[in-house]
Amino acid sequence: MNDYVEYARYVTAEMTRNGYPKLCIAQGDVDEATIAAFESELEAATDERPLQHFFEDHPGILAGELGAHCRWVLPQVSLGGRYVPDFLDARLDSGGMHWTLIELESPTAQLFTRDGQPRRELRKGLSQVQDWRDWLTANRDLARRSRADKGLGLLGIDHLASGIVIIGRRSHRSVADQERLKSLIFRERVLIRSYDWILERARSRVALRGELARGRAVMCEECALPGRTFQ
User: Fold this and answer.
1) pLDDT value of residue 209
2) CA 162-132-166 angle, 5° bins
């Protein structure tokens, strides 16, 4: 058994002991009916709260923001009672655990003022991600320690975690907005995505699953471990 196999099995077992269930993207985390339900919820939403609830009930919709890997999607984990990220997402591959801090803002939000300054919702989203990173800098041991030892059980997490703010709709963004976003994403080290992007990613994973079922695509590394079978 190679080192990666041993590591992957350890991570899976430890995260399970900490109470964090794993999703398998390749084996079908989302389907067309769920996507249709999300699209309907999105069209009716006037703020992020119903979408938060939808993602909690259907984490597979949110799970594929970084591609086809097995992962954990953890809603509203309290960071020492001070901060509560909307979601923490962790994926496992041969490079280790990769964490993403996810902040949801309103799907109706506009991103910039007329003079090109970030609006309140966007500023808030970016500030939230930075607050969580600052907390992880000061409390890395607590965050990583197992829950049995009074930690959070977030294996491998630290302040270098990726960040994503999901906000607004693609139709609300002008060409000028897209250019401003490039600069903002580079400066803040936080991706800024629309809810339409979530829909696109989910649809692409349904297509991937079809390819897997026909045996024409490569499964994610975790699914390809010895002893794992694709259903």
Assistant:
1) 65
2) 55
Helix axes 175-188, 120-138, angle to 10 degrees: 20
Between 26 and 19, residue with greater pLDDT? 19
pLDDT at position 104: 98
The pLDDT, as a whole number, for residue 203 is 86
The CATH classification number of 3-213 equals 3.40.91
DSSP state of 218: P
Rounded CA-CA distance 229/224 in Å is 8
What is the domain partition of the chain in residue ranges? Answer: 3-213
Smallest CA-to-CA distance from 172 within 107, 125, 114, 118 is with: 107
Nearest 5°: phi and psi at 71?
-160, 170
Q: Are 177 and 149 in contact (CB under 8 A)?
A: no
Burial readout 158-197 (b: 16 or more C-beta within 10 A, e: otherwise): ebebbbbbbbbbeeebeeebeebbeebbeebebbbbbbbb
**Phi and psi at residue 64, to the nearest 5°:** -95, 25
Mean pLDDT over 125-130 rounds to 97
